[in-house]
Structure formats: C-alpha cells, structure tokens
Amino acid sequence: MEVKLPNLGEGAESGTVVSLLVSSGDTVEKDQTLIEIENEKAVAPIPAPAAGKIGEIRISEGDSVSVGQVILILDDGAGGGDSSESSDSGESSSQGSKPAAPASSGSAPSGGGPRPGGMPMAPAPGFGFGFPQGMSAPAAAPSNLPSLHDIWIPGAVVHSADSSAAKAGFSPPASPSIRRTAAELGIDLMKVPGSGSGGRITTEDLKAYVGALHQAVEVLMGHLQAMSAGPGAAPAPEKPKPKSIDFSQWGEVKKEPLSSLRKTISRRMTEHWNDIPHVTQFDSVDVTDLNALRKKLAPSYKEKGARLTMTPFVMKALVQALDKHSVFASSLDEATQELVYKQYRHVGIAVDTEAGLVVPVIRDVDKKSLLELSAELSEMAEKAKDRKLSGDDMSGGVITISNQGAIGGAHFTPIVNKPEVAIVGLGRGAMQPAVVGEKILPRLMMPVTLSYDHRVIDGGTAARFMVDFVEAFKEFNEENSAA
Amino acid sequence: MNSIETEVVVVGGGPGGYAAAFYAADHGKKVLLIEREPRLGGVCLNRGCIPSKALLYATHMITEARESAKRGISFQDPTVNLDQLREWKNGIIQKLSQGIAGLAKRRGVEVIQGRGYFDDGQTLRVETEEGQQFVKFEQAVIAVGSQSALPKAFDLGNKRIMTSRGALEIEDIPEKLLIVGGGYIGMEMGTVYAALGSKVVMVEAMEGILMGADKDLVKPVVTQAQETFEEIRTQAKVQKMATQGKQILVQMEHDGEAREELYDRVLVAVGRKPNCADMGLENTQVQLDDRGFIQVDDNMRTNESKIYAIGDVIGGVMLAHKASKEARIAVNHILGDNLKPESFIIPAVVFTDPEIAWCGLTESEAKQKDIPVKVAKFPWAASGRALSFDRTEGMTKLILDPDSERILGVGITGPNAGEMIAEGVVAIEMGATAEDLANCVHPHPTLSETLMEAAEVFYGKATHVASPKRK
Fold first, then answer.
1. B66: in domain
2. Is the peptide bond before A419 cis (omega within 30 degrees of 0)?
C-alpha cells in the first residue's frame, strides 16, 4: 500500500521531512513512527497505518512534502493495496519523483553558479553578476530592491546609446541568429554586455546574461520575502557562518548530533525570542487551601481514573483571567496589522519529554470540568512521551502553561510561544512565611510568572491580569471542584 | 459567379510576390498568386534587373574588345545584330520566368493571370480574360510593385520617348540618345547604349549623379562615363519635348542657358511610382502616404488587419532583395510570429562600369546625421588582381565606429563590386570589427583581398599600402 502524508491539521498543506526513521526493508509495527514532519506548527510523527515491510521510500530528509503525497510503499501483506489508493497514485508519484529542491539560496556565486537549462557556462573568468560598487543599500525596503538594469558582467563591454553604431540605427553587435533569440526571449540586447571584439555579443554572453537575470530574480525574491516578513523589516544581514570550536584542546569531549526535534526547538526559540519583545511579571499564589482541597478530592478522581494535579486548577484560573483580559488570548497578524482575538479557550501545556519540549493543546478548557481536564492531561502526557502527538494535538492554543512544579525551582522566565502573546510559568509550591492579616503564617506559596509580548500588551494590563489570575485561585471549593 | 476561397492571396508575381507565395506555401498555407502579366517575375525579371544585366554583359564585350587593343590583342569592329541580341535576352527571361512558374506549380501555388481589385478587406476580385473571379482570403499580400514615372509633360504618346521598359527592348541604336535622370537606371542604360555606339547625353537636375552613393565611390564611374558618354549635364532641367519628324526636340536649361536640341530617342528615368492606384484600396482600410505608397507597420501589415504590403509599393529603396526580405517578414507574421522583426541592412549595387556597391552606413549619411565615424580606404591601384585586368580605378572602403571599431558600412567601386559587397553585409550583420575582417585570410590574388586590406589600412599595417600609423 502507498502511505501518504496524512492531514497535518490547522490547514497545513505541507511540511518538511525532518527525520526518516525507517529504511527500505525494515519491518514496522502498526503506529510505529515512520517519519517526522515539521511544519510551522509542530513536529509531527507520521505513524505506520499498518504493520508490514517498508518497500520503496519516495522521500528523503529535507524534502518538502504535501498532504496526500506518497511517502513510501508499505507491504502490509494485503497484496498491493486497493484500487482507490492507486487511482490517484500517478499524480502523487509524479510529485514524489520530483528531485528534491536544493536548499541553496541567498548569495550569488561569483563564479559559474547553477545555470538555467543546464547550459554550460561561458569560460570567461569572473562571470557572474553583482551590483555596481558604490551603490548604497538604502534602508527603506522598496528602494532596497536592486534594479535589473544594474546587472553587469565584469570584463564585458556595455553598449552605449551614444555610440556611432547606435546613432546610425544599428542594434548592438551580434549575429542575426543571436538577435533573433534575444527577441524571442524578450531581451533587449542593449543591456547584454558583449565580450567579443568591439563588444560583440556572443551566444555565451547571452547565456551569461540570462543566468545573471535568473540569479537576480532569486535575490529579489529573497528581498521580497524578507519584506513580507514585516513592514519595514530590513533584509536580515547575512549571518556569519558558524565556526566550530575545538573544545578537545581543553579536555575530553563527546559529540552527539542534534535530534531533529532539538533542531526545531532551537530554531523556534531563537525565532520567538528575536521576534517578540519579552517582559516577564513575577508573583506568588497562596495555594495552601487549594492544595488541601486537591488532596481531599484526589481519591475520588482516582476512582474515576484520573490524577488530580495543580495544573487543571491553574488552567481554570487562567481561562477566568483570560475572559477579563481577552488581549492575552489574541495574536498579532503582522501582515494585516490586526489583533486577532480568539473566542475559544484552548490552552497549551508544555510537556517535558526525553527528546525535548513539546506542547500539546487542551481544547475548550472553559467548557470542561476539572475531571475532564485531568483525564485529558494524562492522556496528552502519555502521547507526548510516546511521541505520538499529531499536528492537530499541538496546534490552536491561545496561551501556554509551563509547569515546573513537579520538578522544582521557583520563578523562571518562559519564552512566549508565538503566535500566542503570553505564557504562564509555574514553579514548585513551597512553604513560606506569609503575612496573613496581622500574623506571619507558614503558607504553601506557588511561584507564578507571566511572560508577554510587549508589542501587544503593556505592563499595566499585565499587572491587572496577574492580579485577577491570582485572585481566581480563591474561587475553587469542594462544591465546584468535585469529580 | 465564381468564388474561390484561399488562405493567402498574393497580388503581384515579382520577386516580392512570388517569394511571399512560395514561403507561405512552404509553411502549409493554401496560396493563390495573382499576376496581371502573362509571365511571372515582375519588373525585376522581365524589364529590370535581369534584362539590363544581360545587355550590360553583352555590350561590355564591345568595350572590352576595344580596350584590348592597347594590350596587344586587337579585334575588328564588332557588328551588332539587335534582333539576335534581343532574342538572346528574351530567352533568358523566358527561362527564368518558366522556372518560377514551375516552382509555383511544384509548391501547389495556383497562379491566376488577371488584375486584382479589392472589393473589401477580405475579398479580391480578379479580372481575367475569362471574366471575374472572386477570391475570399484570410490574408492578402500586396506586392504589385512600381513602374517608371513618365511626367505628363513628356508623355506625348511617342514611343521614341521611352522609359526603361522601352529602352530594354533595344528597337534600334539611336544615334543621339538623351537620358533624363542620372540615377542608377539612367547610368546603367546609358552604359549599354554608349557601348552600342549611341552618343549619350545625360541630364540630371541635381548637382551630381548617383546621389545616394558616396561621392568618392561615384567618381570613377563619372570619370568613365565622361569618356563613353557624349556629355553629362548636372543641375540641368528638361522643360519641354516635342515630336519633330523622327526625332524629339528637347528644350532644357543648363548653366542658366536655354538649349534646344534634337535627339533620336529620349530615355526618361526620373523615378518610379507605386502601382496601387487602381486596385480598390479605397474599399479597404489600407492607408497611403502622401506620395501614394502603402503604409505598413514593422510586420508589413497595413491598416487593414488582413492585408499586408511589401516591396516597391511601400516605398523605401526599390530593390528586389528588399521585397524578398519583406515577403518573409509579412509571411512570418501571417504564420503567427508576432515578434518585431529584426532590423536588416539592404545592400545596393549599381551595375555601371565600374560597378558601385555599398551597404550599411554611408560616409555621407554619417556626415549628414553628425555621426562620428572613421573611414579606411584601400585603393585598387595597390591590388595585384585589379592591375592584372587593367582596372585600377576601384576602391574599397570601410566606415567604422571610432570606439568599438565595428564595421558600420562598406563601400566598393570597381568591377565585381556587386559580388564583393555580400561579404560586407555579412560582416555588418554579424557585428564584426575591422580587426575581425583583418584577421580573416582572403585568397590571393583576388579583389576580395581589398576588404581585408582596407581593414589593415585602418590599423596602419596594410601589406600593400604604406600609411602613417593610425593607432
């Protein structure tokens, strides 16, 4: 049977293969992860739809694949799959057989870079293109685009409209066949520098010019993409290529390649940290009574197969605060410069797994009971540890909770999970001397932090949110929290 | 009523028309070719290029034989049998014309003899001897050419006042021949008749003869003509002609002096006019310019979207090879090629003795348009080949872009200049420089070496010319 890329959820149409976990000839169990696909939402494992033996693999790491595309052939012993599967396989396999798009982009090579149509490059040294020296790069985005007319080929003669030949009505020096080809390509030969005697345009010159145009277009596309990433966003300066440091000069080392998930986390965190001006608010919540209530209710939850932790309480308190401060459940649409207020209350829960951080999302927290939330949390945690979360499982959150309480530690500054605008970090609750009324009493205090996107949320708003969030913890009682 | 449907109809079977018809047929079009004369080939073949060249060749023998005496080989005075000469000339025309008819047949191009008349933008009425035929066409190409202009004042209905058409029939050898007009037709026919023994007087209203060509190229021709012609009068104007017995009484003004002279024949060669006056163009959107030529766009299309026009009838230089090139442009457009056609240069040849040929930019045009150029000349006096056949008056010159040294124009005067100019055309169209030409080996001893040596003159290193170093 053909295994196709399933729906990734959230309207995502495609993703990149970050890891290929099976090889041709491998025997796999049903639900065993075949590949991991990364899109802008998440890294999603793609499970085997059935047990069987892996046949032909039609993708490789780094490939961009779209929903419905055939990933590989799985021999499930059923004898070649049903006809409905193969009916659209022609299209799928033709997509699949496309050569992997090379990821090369950015800087134009000064020598013979890839040429369209595989044409051999002119042997002339130093061919390529650039922009004339002294052409400054203005800061404003639109004028930052280089003009195609500025393309020049070093060593070749640029034709002048002031030449005697041009004044006499002659086209630039080139054979009739080259002039014809240029006309067919819509190229003005006046702009094609000629390397022959007297600036005569050779076939190679025309090819070099077409190649330079091609490169220029790629550079321009890069500029345009940089521009569309944000208004006024100047194209990111070329990052210097990272250099390796030889740590072994100071002692023994051990090297381990980054896992694909780690690479994704690394890239995402850098992106979120760079894109969002973070501010973090600190507070503590007195959970002495709440913890007592939790302990009291826990057995009845356990009877119903759920483990009652602090997290469902935090989630409930959080959605209450969100209702009062809806901007914390918003997203900034940078393209349209609009704030999108989400009317649903899906909450992301950061889960620490062996492989790294994943963030499953619990839907409609406002409509669910503590019991339902407890059950779902356990289920998600389980899935996360088995790396079985789907793209759908990890998308659509409006805010994220990162709870380190089970591990330890106090306040920390979590990074906002873009496109969300806020994240709540919880530390481990600890007995502390607290002033209650006129007395100092030992109370169970839970450290709470709130990191938010200062582009969208101001400090006052955040402080008010924090007050209401902390206040919401007092709302829980035996009646409204019973299983 | 007889109605024919065709894809392409070509009106006029000259070098433009038949080229268009054949090219369209070669690309799978159903083509109809309309020609009013019984023979295909147009003016060029029947009463222009070909017969004039035949006569120039034949009569050149007379001059050659005479010249030969000084080299120690003498002939008796020639006798001329005009009927035989005419028959030989007509035989050539017939052979070529039949050849074209055969080519048409083999391509499946149907030829109808008759006059074409446009009823509207998609219908051509053809008036044949058998009656009218209506042709519904998808595209029409007008290639009806031009004819010699005969100003009303000279049109006395006297056949002794001829245009080139009559002159090529050589009915007799007039003792005294007046040629009105010092263009290439007048010069070529004058050369023929002078060789046959006529006393030729040439009258030109402008200050020089062969005004299109550079003066230095024309000079050897004028020198030669001054020897063979009785007289060349420039800035002279014929005012009146009258029949007087078997002669023509001509009144003219020359050097501020009125003259009255008797001639046995007069050749009027003062220009040509388009043949499109009476072909129903008023029933179409086709537009004419103020001189009566059809206006076309870059792709040879007229204002009427289905009608194209090529050759003499659209004006410009009236040369067969220009019409043939335009035929291809028009048909390419009909075939769906919508690209703006590449510009091309049209070489010109005057088949006088010596010949003059040029292409591209001329020196005088550069001067007139204030275009800076460098000119390199190689005199044939330094050519062994020219010396070996006793013709050293010739010259080969290159007109060059001063910066890129690209060849912009080539001019040649001397025997066989017409054959040699093709190399100049190739050099210009290929964007060659003087250096390119200098670096190409030319065979010795030939006149073609003069092109290479002219390029070497530019660099001051021509083998056979000692010239001050230019660069």
1. yes
2. yes
In this structure, the answer to whether residues B131 and B159 fall within a common structural domain is: no
A202 vs B contacts (CB less than 8 Å):
none
Any idea what DSSP says for residue A412?
-
Distances (CA, A) of B121 to A116, B112, B133, B245: 46, 20, 16, 50
Cross-chain residue pair B401–A163, CB shorter than 8 Å: yes
Q: Which DSSP symbol is given to B342?
A: P
**Mean pLDDT value of segment B309-319:** 95
Residue B13 has pLDDT above 90, yes or no: yes
Q: CB distance from A198 to chain B under 8 Å?
A: yes
Q: Check CB contact under 8 Å for A176 and B343.
A: no
The verdict on B123 and B17 lying in the same domain is yes
Nearest CB partner across the interface for A173, out of B402, B431, B435: B431
Supply the CATH number for residue B295's domain. 3.50.50.60
- Say if B344 falls within a structural domain: no
The domain total for chain B is 3
**B430, A196: Cβ pair inside 8 Å?**
no
Question: Tell me, what's the pLDDT at A217?
Answer: 85
Taking the CA of residue A187 and the nearest CA in chain B, the distance in Å comes to 12
ipTM of the complex: 0.79
Cα A2 to Cα A83: distance, rounded to the nearest angstrom: 11
B436 and chain A in contact, CB less than 8 A: yes
Whether residues B104 and B89 share a domain: the answer is yes
CB contact under 8 A, A183 and B430: no
CATH of the domain at B375: 3.30.390.30
Q: Among B340, B373, B429, select the one facing A176 at the smallest CB separation.
A: B429
Q: What is the pLDDT of residues A125-179, one digit of tens each?
A: 333 344 333 333 333 334 444 444 445 555 677 788 889 999 998 999 999 889 9
pLDDT tier at A40, thresholds 50, 70, 90? low
Q: Which of A267, A344, A330 is nearest to A457 (CA)?
A: A330
For residues B229 and B248, give the distance between their C-alpha atoms in angstroms, rounded to a whole number. 19
For residue B71, what pLDDT is reported?
94
CA-CA distances (angstroms) from residue A300 to A294, A316, A327, A378? 10, 19, 36, 16
Residues B250 and B330 reside in one and the same domain: no
Q: Do B191 and B164 belong together in one domain?
A: yes
Question: What average pLDDT is seen over chain A?
Answer: 79
Q: Is residue B413 part of a domain?
A: yes
User: Do residues B193 and B51 both lie within one domain?
Assistant: no
Do residues A266 and A258 touch, judged by C-beta distance below 8 A? yes
Residue B393 pLDDT > 60, yes or no?
A: yes
How many CB atoms within 10 Å of residue A285? 24
Residue B134 token pair? 């209506």
Pick the CATH number of A277-481 from 3.40.50.20, 3.10.20.30, 3.40.50.1100, 3.30.559.10: 3.30.559.10
Q: What does CATH list as the number for A2-96?
A: 2.40.50.100
For residue B82, tell me if it sits in a domain. yes
Contacts of A200 in chain B (CB under 8 A): 406, 430-433
- pLDDT at residue number B98: 96
Q: Which of B60, B254, B321, B444 is catalytic?
A: B444
Q: Does A182 touch chain B (CB under 8 A)?
A: no
Does residue B299 sit at the A interface (CB-CB below 8 Å)?
A: no
Cis peptide before B445 (omega within 30 of 0): yes
Annotated active-site residue A454? The verdict is yes
A181 touches chain B (CB under 8 A): no
Tell me: do B7 and B138 sit in the same domain.
yes
Structure tokens at B450: 């003069």
List, by residue range, all CATH 3.30.559.10 domains of chain A.
277-481
Tell me which residue in B361, B404, B436 faces A163 most closely, judged by beta carbons: B404
Domain limits at B415? 354-458
The verdict on A183 touching B (C-beta cutoff 8 Å) is yes
Q: Are residues B48 and B179 in the same domain?
A: no
At residue A37, φ and ψ (nearest 5 deg) are: -110, 135
Contact, A453 vs A332, CB < 8 A?
yes
